Amino acid sequence: MAVYTEVSDEALRAFLAGYDLGELIAFRGIAEGVENSNYALKTTGGDFILTLYERRVDPAELPWFLGLMRHLAARGLACPQPVAGHDGEALRALAGRPAAICTFLPGVWPRRPAVAHCGPLGGALAALHAAGDGFSAERPNSLGPQAWGPLLERCRPNGDTVQPGLCAELDGHLASILQDWPPLSGPGALPRGHIHADLFPDNVFFLEGTDRRPRVSGLIDFYFACTDTLAYDVAICLNAWCFEPDLAFNVTKARALLAGYNAVRPLSTDEMAALPVLCRGAALRFLLTRLYDWANTPPGAMVTRKDPLEYLRRLRFHAAAKEVSAYGV
Ligand SMILES: Nc1ncnc2c1ncn2[C@@H]1O[C@H](COP(=O)(O)OP(=O)(O)O)[C@@H](O)[C@H]1O
Ligand SMILES: N[C@@H](CCOP(=O)(O)O)C(=O)O
């Protein structure tokens, strides 16, 4: 988890008085996630998640995230729905932070993603992309290619303490990724829409179907969502789901993920051809935020830092792959 901001019993009870959720039965901090403070709430009205927004979330953007979740849920996607208080507002303040309560989703995220998870995951990602149609407000990707150079500069003072020569290697990758990146508009531009941008295994819940195969029961954590290249979201998932714990690429998982996606929203030839560079960019993006966090996580925060070098290994794989055939297609 993360719990960066502690909430007292008294503060929570006063906060809940603004809702029609009944009496508080229990609440506890959740020790997963890295971005925001999350609490599981049980009231006489049911189970909910209370989120206090921290760090990278710009409060001015919260109405967009909550609006997108409402839109996706109304289109049938299983995702958290923001709960409004008596005054009709879902976005409120608690313990000095912006805060919201969302519906609780059943299911568990896979600690060891298997091939059997990757097909349903691909299908759920494509369903998310389709469901985003019609949500007219846009949010630029604040962690897109234009952000990687400045982020690398902020990592530079400590980067080489994580691994000697790391920053110089990243300079090289960044330059070649930016050179190959598909244009955002005009000839060669790829389809755009609302993307999740952080659909890692810990943000996808599964339940077992009657055939005993895993089914996606919900997608959570939309606080990196933005309006960007749809295939970039696929590249993020190839990074997050298709490498084994020893960081070997599992082409069978990639094939399953892409087949699941294509069954709902077929990727065009241009999107497929762009996957190698999109995968390099996605690996660099997560490497950089992890590297920054490695040196800058506040002491005492109840959070587990994530290893940046796992993403260096992925980045090297993609840089060597070059062709889309490396992804099993
Ligand atoms: N709507 C939800 N339903 C059920 N559990 C949730 C929900 N939202 C968050 N959680 C729980 O909280 C954890 C952290 O949530 P997440 O949104 O990933 O946090 P962060 O934004 O800090 O990364 C999840 O792994 C899950 O256990
Ligand atoms: N998925 C990112 C970190 C963001 O974590 P989340 O808990 O918000 O999914 C990473 O692995 O670096």
Question: Can I get a quick summary?
Answer:
Pathway: Amino-acid biosynthesis; L-threonine biosynthesis; L-threonine from L-aspartate: step 4/5. The protein has 329 residues and is α+β, with helices and mostly antiparallel strands.
Inertia-based shape:
globular
What ligand molecules are bound, each kind once?
Answer: adenosine-5'-diphosphate, the ligand N[C@@H](CCOP(=O)(O)O)C(=O)O
Mean pLDDT score, rounded?
95
Strand content: 15-25%
Count of strand segments: 12
CATH architecture of the largest domain: Alpha-Beta Complex
What is the CATH topology of the largest domain?
Answer: Aminoglycoside 3'-phosphotransferase, Chain: A, domain 2
Helix tally equals 9
Helical fraction = 40-55%
The helix/strand order is EHEEEHEEEHHHEEEEHHHEH
Low-confidence stretches: none
Question: What is the name of the CATH superfamily of the largest domain?
Answer: Aminoglycoside phosphotransferase (APH), C-terminal lobe
State the distance separating the first and last CA atoms: 36 Å
The overall number of domains is 2
- The helix-and-strand class reads alpha+beta
Rg calc: 20 Å
Q: Main β-sheet: number of strands, strand sense, barrel status?
A: 6 strands, antiparallel
Can you identify the CATH class of the largest domain? Answer: Alpha Beta
Describe this entry's structure for a reader:
It is a single chain. By secondary structure, this protein is α+β, with helices and mostly antiparallel strands. It folds into 2 domains: 2-103, Phosphorylase Kinase, domain 1 (2-Layer Sandwich), CATH 3.30.200.20; 115-327, Aminoglycoside phosphotransferase (APH), C-terminal lobe (Aminoglycoside 3'-phosphotransferase, Chain: A, domain 2, Alpha-Beta Complex). It contains 9 helices and 12 strands. It has helices at residues 9-16, 62-74, 115-131, 145-162, 166-180, 230-241, 251-264, 269-296, 309-321; strands at residues 2-3, 24-29, 37-43, 46-52, 82-83, 92-94, 97-103, 192-195, 204-208, 214-219, 226-229, 302-303. Strands 2, 3, 4, 5, 6 and 7 form a 6-stranded antiparallel sheet that branches. A two-stranded antiparallel ribbon has the order 1-12. Strands 8-11 form a two-stranded antiparallel sheet. Helix 3 (115-131) runs parallel beside helix 7. The two termini are 36 Å apart. The mean pLDDT is 95. Residues 1-2, 30, 32-36, 38, 49, 80, 102, 104-105, 202-203, 220-221, 223 line the site of adenosine-5'-diphosphate (ADP).
